[in-house]
What does this fold into?
Amino acid sequence: MDTRLLPVTTELARRLGHHRVLVEGAPFDDAIRIWNHGVGHRPAGVARCATPDDVSAAVTVAGAHGLPLSVRGGGHDWAGRSIRDGGLVVSLSDMRSVHVDPERRVAVVGGGATSADVIAATSPYGLVAATGTAGGVGMAGLTLGGGYGPLSGVHGLALDNLLAADVVLADGTQVRADPEHDADLLWALRGGGGNFGVVTSLHVRLHPLESILTGFVLFSWRQAGSVWAGLRELLAEAPDELTVQSGVFSGPDGSPVMLLSPAWAGEPETGRQWTARLEGLGDVLMSQVDVMPYATALTLVEAQMVDGSHYTIRTRTVADFTPEVVAALVEAGDTRTSPFSGTPIHHFHGAATRVAPDATAFANRDAHFVVEIVAGWRPDDADPERHVAWTDSVSAALAPVASPGGYVNLLGPDAGAQIDEAYGANASRLMELKRRYDPSGVFSATPLPEAVHR
It folds into this structure.
């Protein structure tokens, strides 16, 4: 351990307990391991926090000693911003409790809880939260940046269901942001990311749902263009209950296939009719769509991920599957450099579009699709740069037909022009609130416009 850290670790150990301050060894390595194994950041230490008071102590001590910090919730940010190289990681991995009030239909969710944790706690009451598509993703990080998911059409984004948040600010102060107290902070947290403090708990609106009709429909890659063209027409008349993810994925032999993943949050028989229409868009290679618990639905995407892989991601937002967009997506599949790479595309429509653009920091409320350009490769790959180049080429091909900005939960720290446009007309208010709540720039969990940092 660097002896310069001794005053920090000594003070943290006194306030949190020795077992909660990690600087080396197997527990330290476990604490800094995240989803993207390609991130090689090495922090100076980890403070494993169990309570908001622990978080306050960690933030205060780091500030007093000039040690930069980051906050680790679910550990799913592909760019690894939760692991501050040379800094202190404020880990919330021991703060995963979920308390459900079934009568009020509200869950209080610990800052380290995953989406799967939330649904496991709410399902016994026949309730669910609006989550993303994967159970292993941290609920806080997902929600603070946006939160596209299977229920976006009927219940909006995850951030649209954030009722309040308990936050530790940069000076260690603990506040609750809700419509009556620190309403400006709540506005900023709904889409502005974890840039204003450490969110130790979320107060989340719940919805009645026993099960969901979902799964996968696969088509041969040669039909991708026509399937996307047909999907464009179908989704133009689809109800809120139907949200459809699409994209290029890998078939059993590793070759590209066209995938549709419908999620129907309504009466199952009607959903099966829509599934049949989706299957009619081409010659189906395989269709596995059925009614299942929401918790099971959150495991489907993760089953496609290979543990230990390295990843890089780019993103573009498009208004529709126009011929130009489809051509770029087909080219992406044709030139894909790895069977671990793909383009999952998120569907934004329905209830999510009926929120005013200035009601939350998340500004883009027009119907759209978010294209994830995901390159994955094994650690022993001899030429990882070819996969990175593929993501850059797909992003560049989509740029002329894409909307300004992009989804902040997917934008990397180098996506300067997209970051500057991501918040649209809300950027100036977000800048003002950043200066008010975090004037020294302690927190940088997700990208903010460059002007915020000046």
Q: What stands out?
A: The first strand starts at residue 21 and ends at 22.
